[in-house]
Amino acid sequence: xxxxxxxxxxxxxxxxxxxxxxxxxxxxxxxxxxxxxxxxxxxxxxxxxxxxxxxxxxxxxxxxxxxxxxxxxxxxxxxxxxxxxxxxxxxxxxxxxxxxxxxxxxxxxxxxxxxxxxxxxxxxxxxxxxxxxxxxxxxxxxxxxxxxxxxxxxxxxxxxxxxxxxxxxxxxxxxxxxxxxxxxxxxxxxxxxxxxxxxxxxxxxxxxxxxxxxxxxxxxxxxxxxxxxxxxxxxxxxxxxxxxxxxxxxxxxxxxxxxxxxxxxxxxxxxxxxxxxxxxxxxxxxxxxxxxxxxxxxxxxxxxxxxxxxxxxxxxxxxxxxxxxxxxxxxxxxxxxxxxxxxxxxxxxxxxxxxxxxxxxxxxxxxxxxxxxxxxxxxxxx
Length: 382
Description:
Blueprint: H1 8-29, H2 36-48, E1 53-57, H3 60-70, E2 78-81, H4 87-95, E3 99-102, E4 125-129, H5 140-150, E5 155-157, E6 165-166, E7 169-170, E8 177-181, E9 195-199, H6 202-212, H7 233-243, H8 246-266, E10 282-283, E11 291-292, E12 298-302, H9 305-314, H10 344-352, E13 353-356, H11 364-381
Parallel strand pairs: 2-3, 2-4, 5-8
Antiparallel strand pairs: 1-9, 6-7, 6-11, 8-9, 10-12, 12-13
Helix pairs in contact: 1-7, 2-7, 3-4, 3-6, 8-11
C-alpha cells in the first residue's frame, strides 16, 4: 500500500470551496499587499496563539530574522539555541553578525535541554531561542525562569508548533515573541511561503511591523533599516480559511499518534523507551500529560534508521529525516569552530530519527500498513 509522508491534495479537496472563495475575494479586491485580509489574519492568529499581537510576515525564516532584529541582536552578541533544528534558526543569528551558542538537546523530546541552559549564558547573551521541534514545546517553565533570572529575552522558534501548549499556555505566548511558519507542509500551511511573529509586547509588535516594510513611517521616510518582509494578502486569505479547521486537524493528528502507540505496543515494542537499543530497537516520541503536542511530525528513533528508511521506501511508504546533520557540523558554520562530539544527543538524534506519516487525512488502513512494515523490518533484524 502506498502511503505518502504528507497528502496536501487530500486536505485541499476537503476545503476547496472555502479556499477558492478566499482567493477569489482577494483577486476581486485587487488588494494584494497587506491590507484588511492581513489585518484580519493577524487578529485571528494572535487570538489563537493566546497573544495580544500578531504580525504577518513573508516566511518563517523572516519571522526569526525580524524577531531577532526587533530584539536588537547584532555583531558581538550571542544567542543561545539548539543544534538540532532547521538551518534557518541558526542562519538568522549568523546573518546578523551574532554568534550561536548551542545547548544540547533532551534525548526524549529533541528540544533544548533546559537543565544545560544556564551554564551557556554569558555577559554577551542577547537572547535565548528554544526550538519547539516537531510540534512539542521545550520546557518553557524552566527556560523562562532562567531568562527572567538573567534578564535575557526569549524568542521562541515555534515554526513547527502553532497551537501547541505547555501547561495550557501556547507556543509564542511564553517569550518576548514567538516565530511561526506557514510553509505549505506545516499544520497550518499557506499556498507558498508565509510566517508571523506573535507577542504580548505592543512595542515589539510595532517594531516588527516597521521592520517588515523597509522601516518606513510614514511612507518613503525610513526611521530604521528594515526590509521587505511582508505577507501577501492571498496567503493571508488562504490561512484564514484553514485556521478554522486547525483544531480538528490537530485532533486527527493526535488520534493517529495514539494509534501508533497502541499498535506498536501490540506488535511487541516497548514504547516507553527514550533511546533505542538492540533489545528495544524502536522509540516513539514522548507525549507528557502537561503538553499539547500538535504532531507537526511523528519522528521515531531506530539504531538502524537508514536501513529502515530504505525498507519503507521500497514499500512505497513516505518518510523523511528531520534533520540529518546537526547545526554545529554544517559546512557553512565551520568557521564557528565546533567539532563532532560537542553535542552528542543532537548527533544521536540526527543519526536515528525518522519521520513517518501522521497527517490528518491518513487512513486507518494506511497507518496499519506503516506499523506492520516497521514491525516486519525489526523482526527480520533480530
